[in-house]
Amino acid sequence: MPKGGVNAPVPVAPEATPAVDPRLLVRQEGVKGYLGEFRRRVTSGELGSLPVVLALIIIWAVFGSLNSSFLSAQNLSNLSQQIVGTGMIAIGVVFVLLLGEIDLSVGSVSGLCAAIFAVLNVTHGVNQWVALLSALVGGALVGLIQGLFFAKVGVPAFVVTLAGNLGWNGLMLQVLGASGTVNLSGKDIVSRLYSTIYGEQAAAYGAAAVGVLLFLGASVLDARRRQAAGVPSRPVLDIALRTVALAIIAFLAAYTLNQYKGLPLALLIFLIFIVVLDFVLRRTSYGRQVFALGGNIEGARRAGINVSWIRISVFTICSTMAAVGGLFLAAQIQSASQTSGGGNLLMNAIAAGVIGGTSLFGGRGSTWSALLGALVIGSIQSGMNIQGLSNAIQFMITGAVLLAAVVVDSLARRTQQAAGRA
Amino acid sequence: MPKGGVNAPVPVAPEATPAVDPRLLVRQEGVKGYLGEFRRRVTSGELGSLPVVLALIIIWAVFGSLNSSFLSAQNLSNLSQQIVGTGMIAIGVVFVLLLGEIDLSVGSVSGLCAAIFAVLNVTHGVNQWVALLSALVGGALVGLIQGLFFAKVGVPAFVVTLAGNLGWNGLMLQVLGASGTVNLSGKDIVSRLYSTIYGEQAAAYGAAAVGVLLFLGASVLDARRRQAAGVPSRPVLDIALRTVALAIIAFLAAYTLNQYKGLPLALLIFLIFIVVLDFVLRRTSYGRQVFALGGNIEGARRAGINVSWIRISVFTICSTMAAVGGLFLAAQIQSASQTSGGGNLLMNAIAAGVIGGTSLFGGRGSTWSALLGALVIGSIQSGMNIQGLSNAIQFMITGAVLLAAVVVDSLARRTQQAAGRA
Amino acid sequence: NESSGGGGSSGSASGGAVGAVRIGLLLPETKTTRYEQFDRPLIEQKIKELAPQAQIDYYNANENATTQQTQVDTALTKGDKVLILDAVDAKSIQSSVQKAHDAGVKVIAYDRLAQGPVDAYVSFDNKKVGELQGQALVAAVGDKAGAGSIIMINGSPTDPNAAEFKAGAHSAIDGKLKIGKEYDTPNWDPNNANQEASAAITAIGGPNVVGVYSANDGMAAGIATALKAAGLSVPLTGQDAQLDGVQRILAGTQTMSIYKPFKPETDVAAQMAVTLAQGKTLDPSLVPTTVTNGSGNQVPANLITPIVLTKDNIKTTVVADGLYTVAQICTPDYADACKAAGLQ
Amino acid sequence: MTGETVLALRGVSKRFGAVQALTDIELEVRAGEVVALVGDNGAGKSTLVKAIAGVHQPDEGTIEWQGRSVTIHRPQDAQHLGIATVYQDLALCDNLDVVGNLFLGREIRRFTILDEVAMEKRSRTLLNTLSIRIPSVRIPVASLSGGQRQVVAIARALIGSPKVVMLDEPTAALGVEQTAQVLDLVERLRDQGLGVILISHNMADVMAVADTVAVLRLGRNNGVFDKERTNQEEIISAITGATDNAVTRRQARGTEGSP
Amino acid sequence: MTGETVLALRGVSKRFGAVQALTDIELEVRAGEVVALVGDNGAGKSTLVKAIAGVHQPDEGTIEWQGRSVTIHRPQDAQHLGIATVYQDLALCDNLDVVGNLFLGREIRRFTILDEVAMEKRSRTLLNTLSIRIPSVRIPVASLSGGQRQVVAIARALIGSPKVVMLDEPTAALGVEQTAQVLDLVERLRDQGLGVILISHNMADVMAVADTVAVLRLGRNNGVFDKERTNQEEIISAITGATDNAVTRRQARGTEGSP
Ligand SMILES: Nc1ncnc2c1ncn2[C@@H]1O[C@H](COP(=O)(O)OP(=O)(O)OP(=O)(O)O)[C@@H](O)[C@H]1O
Ligand SMILES: Nc1ncnc2c1ncn2[C@@H]1O[C@H](COP(=O)(O)OP(=O)(O)OP(=O)(O)O)[C@@H](O)[C@H]1O
Ligand SMILES: [Mg+2]
Ligand SMILES: [Mg+2]
């Protein structure tokens, strides 16, 4: 009878050979090894999100040199809030992109959910929490319906969500009714999402410290467990360097925010969403299965993954994140209007994911790309606003900068391709 | 030394066995066999574009029963002209979709090229042919630039064309200049593209007859050559049935058009573009290579195909078709305005290709899907307009009908998948 | 909040030099030509005239309410002391107006009456515009009113201003003309308008169409071709006095447009801005009336009457005001029409 | 040595469009038995395996599992019964690393979180057993060699506790040493009482480990042979449908033409 | 029997990220010679073939073609020189039919239009030669069996007039009869004076057709053997790097354990 299970199914042959490969270029210990490894990565293009960060730095430097107020604490603080709405939607889009699919309805869904909240809370005087929940559930339902059509009926996601884009926009107009724009009360939970800024110095620094410590703790624990189990682990130097880099960024950001008003609640929530969902994607079975589907659907199906369920759930997550983003956008203008969810929102949200490094073809990406991409797009917009050019010129420059931001990344990848890692 | 070349490279083994496979279910001769084959195809979902045609018929029936003027000769004739602008752009989009890529700039490019023509011809009094050529060359150049960034630099097509979408729109505003909308003179070649309608009965019937005869001639010739060479050919009955079906559609259309004003030049040009580019895709090396790239890029590269060149040329074709479509759209409103190329044009053009049956994932599709898709979208719009509902309702219904139109197709494909042809 | 932004420079203001006054100009969109063609240059010119050292920051929201609110943030960041604000969405801009007000920045509602604590308002009345269009259409249709119905093609359903034009037009048309079909046109798209008109003509039947209401000139372009294709020649309205609209009026394919003499409006706005920037109060001649905005604030206002533009007054309005030169209007294609109208 | 029948096919047919890929197939697999499924290219072997694994649904016929008739709609269903499969086209997720692929759908978790350390450790043991060298278990399988990928796919099938293992040409891309290890593995699986279906074109391997040899030809059964009572020539002629075929001709030439 | 050197590699090295896949490889192929390239899984055989075919660029070293040093940047370059390649992963376009794949990049044309009839006719002849049954040459290769796909890839390489043919595990998925045909084909190619590089894990096949056997081990040359002056055991121990390996152990067990 077969014995086994996860723990002992394979009859191990006595003559097993060790799998260490002499051709693997093991990194030397110490700083020198670290630098060598870094040089190797640069030349072979394995830089992860470094090129985008580089592009971002260039964008900031250029706009900062053109107009000093761009790099002012006030503008950066505003920027950190302005990106949240689009960024939240982009997180959801990243999930869908990981499947290799697309969701064209996120703009309309964000508008619809903002309208649901505003009309329930303001027009009908429904309790704010109930209204909030209704908006989120509304978003989730939309995603569920779209997911069902995609996964169960087999309509291409592009068409389902394109139809949704129209349909939910119509529903939003219907919900808002003839009077159109509904202003929020300014005292409800959604309005406060945007207006709350923790002014005490301690808040921003505290958040930065917590983040850095969490990272350090997790890294050290992981390295310990790995050493104990005898599998390769990250060297101490590596952990130290990463922690220091993170600390510099975090405390610099906290310092800047404190220079103006403090830590915006919106930014804090955005970061929490990113970290939590990143964890879901990288550290849970669910996330693993999402990546698998993006890599090879047939392979995932044969591995016994419930493909329909993953697809439906991902579309539900995406629409729910669109709802969250929509609430932030409504908070930003303190109202739900007929233009909510329209304009460039859809393209910006998708572009944020793609620019941040998530592949359109599925199976490669991270929620952090939503942050990076939203920052790139937000910075260009903010810089353009400060410049005050005519729209014709502004469009052209925005297009050019967008392209340039990704060229850096593409060139890095080309090296990588030449190095055979395509 | 190796002998050979395409004609005799392989040393044929004397003991070659015949490749006829007893498991291949050969169709019986005659009408009965034909019906049996048809039944088999229906049950296994190999219906090609039949489901979309079916959806179109349902849409027409429903709108026709709601309002009799929908099926009037006047409305159908108008419809046949209204779809041309979007349809032309959709043809270009089909090319890009065949590569498994997307072009988000087609809307802006169509507006830009219309503006180039109008400003050159009307504002600067340039000869109309020179202006026309400039507009088309402008479109081609745009495609060339985008193609270079995509193929040579390696920026994802999504990002290049998204940047283009902004940039070319800015350029269009710049070209139109401060005064904005430029009216066409009404006597130039572009204006006449839309206003010319061949009123003689003979025109429409003649065009239908030429089309049917060409099809019949080509089919018969091909069957002859195949029989002569001893490879399987289409049976006579098959050819006869197809020709009759085509003739019915063609003459019915001609009859309807003649009921109103006659054969619109725009429709004629559209059909010619479709037929010619379909021929390019299916009967030339170039077309074969486009399909190959959409199927397996690495495979195509290893087969010695110049991948960059194909990619660049496809993007050039797409933008040029966008320019053509832009001129038709300008002809429709007899002017180039700042809204040209905006609104839903981009989504409609892409959706037309996808609804018509071209895969978003590359390697499967045809220029005919541009016609079918544009017809579906145009019919929905036209039907909605005749109904005259409020926009909120109209959006929702449009979304629902769009979805329903593709559900038919998706269900057919699901059968196919179950039958293992996915 | 008394220490408004003008405070710092008001000391030197008495000397005539207004220091480095910063004024933010926030316009809503680019799809209609007037904003970048007229409003922006005219306002900038007038401000420079009144306060040569003033610095003007220009923003265009591209029809996006959210963008506009981030632009208000940017303006506050850059230290603008007065905002001339043409709201994308007069209602939802309220929070930004409040924000500016709280920061001691003065807000002039330009063209559209924004909600919130606005300091001054100069405009043409959107509702009035619709009314004038409606009246002109009723007059042009005349005694054919009983013979058929009209087609109404309104602006974008997602544009709050379109709703105001629509309401104004209805107040003039309802009861006088029969409305056969009515549409809201997404994005004010001329091609859409063209298809809507074609469909409506088919549905109503060509001979039964006695007139078409078009909310602006852009859509009128598309409607005019649809009418021509159906062989109809009926009254057609418009708005904005765009060059192509003027040409169509000359050619007879469009009946009227609404000309908003931008110069008076921009001049008033510039004067208001400079005055407020200098920390002074507005002269009553600049704000003869008061209006109440959507959020209940009393706003000192200056309302300028829009003009109905027809073939007869082209010369005395858009040409006389320097909006277009005769050469611009009378391209070779329109030479005959110009002669007939006495323009050339 | 062999136990009772775990898996049996009764009259299974499968059609793809105009191609009748399988016609009335009968097959039985007993516990502790290695059934070799052989046949020409395109004979329908992989289609049969996929029908059992739930990738394709048979058009006709029934599948019996431990005597009961079962329906297998999806690959999950087969896995739940205890059928593990190595597909000819491997079907790995190129973007995931070796560990990710090995444990896909059966991740080891600690408090609902993936236990990467445990999985990595077990991956190394598994791969060592099959004596394959892979530079690192953390590189995406896209960058593995053909044989390395094949070993990953084989190792995949051993995670979980299957009752029947189906191997579709498992040694096609393997080196001599790895092939030997896989054959050893097949024997160990049999000795543990599992049923094994082995597809191979290599007659030497088939004769080395199979208890029973089932031949498919053009989508139909073409004989079931007991290993003890047959020989390679008989099987080859059942596969090719003729005693005179390219193989025998080649062998004949080889003998007479040898210098 | 063999002519002058057509293709030679001098000190070729190739690195992927942190993996040094090839180190200082030397190889020579003469006209009318079959060079078998053997080695363990992951030894770098396919990487070497891809470097010659222009799929990957070597980091160091030179490739000499008929005595001249050449640079092969893209697969086209290799094809223009006259190198035809069958890749291990086949790299067919799943959406194209068999004819489309066979002639991809080398379509037969009549007045610039594809001559489908001529191509179809020739495809049938080619496939018959390799004695494979394919239901129809007009079905997409996606629906072919593993062996059928492999034959299509092999047939592909024979269109055009190559001077050197590289076959990366061409018989891995093939049935006994098809394998025999491919071996026959290799011999016919050699007799026509082509240089052939054959990669295979099947020592019997290698010994049957190769003139020279080049062994790779862990990305390095590990000996070149003349077929006439070596035996299977010697080659296997060069491949595995030890005389005591799973293969010999298995053989030993097989002998002593046989009942
Ligand atoms: N999805 C499919 N669609 C259409 N035909 C298919 C499909 N899958 C397999 N076939 C056909 O069914 C037949 C059997 O294929 P199968 O893959 O089962 O062969 P096989 O015995 O595994 O061959 P090999 O030894 O070459 O792997 C082939 O003729 C093939 O063309
Ligand atoms: N694109 C790539 N990126 C990273 N590593 C690679 C890549 N391609 C191959 N390798 C590595 O290079 C080594 C050699 O691979 P190669 O495919 O050449 O082996 P092989 O000799 O063909 O083996 P097999 O017999 O299994 O096909 C392997 O360790 C593999 O992991
Ligand atoms: Mg098989
Ligand atoms: Mg290999």
Automatic annotation (TrEMBL), chains A, B:
> Topologically, how does it sit relative to the membrane?
Multi-pass membrane protein
UniProt-annotated location(s): Cell membrane
UniProt xrefs under CDD domains: TM_PBP1_transp_AraH_like
Provide the transmembrane region boundaries.
Answer: 47-67, 79-99, 106-123, 129-151, 158-182, 202-223, 235-257, 263-281, 309-333, 345-361, 368-386, 392-412
Q: Which UniProt keywords apply?
A: Cell inner membrane, Cell membrane, Membrane, Sugar transport, Transmembrane, Transmembrane helix, Transport
- Does the keyword Signal feature in the UniProt annotation? no
Q: Which InterPro entries match?
A: ABC_transp_permease
Which Pfam families does the UniProt entry name for this protein?
Answer: BPD_transp_2
Presence of keyword Nucleotidyltransferase: no
Q: What does this protein do?
A: Part of the binding-protein-dependent transport system for D-xylose. Probably responsible for the translocation of the substrate across the membrane.
> What is this protein identified as?
Xylose transport system permease protein XylH
Organism (species): Kitasatospora misakiensis
UniProtKB/TrEMBL annotation, chains D, E:
Q: Could you tell me the keywords of this UniProt record? A: ATP-binding, Nucleotide-binding
* Record has Metal-binding as a keyword: no
What species is given as this protein's source? Kitasatospora misakiensis
Specify whether Aminoacyl-tRNA synthetase is a keyword of the entry.
Answer: no
What is the protein name stated in its UniProt record?
ATP-binding cassette domain-containing protein
UniProt-recorded Gene Ontology molecular function terms: ATP binding
Domain of life according to the entry: Bacteria
Q: Can you give the residue ranges of the ABC transporter domain?
A: 7-243
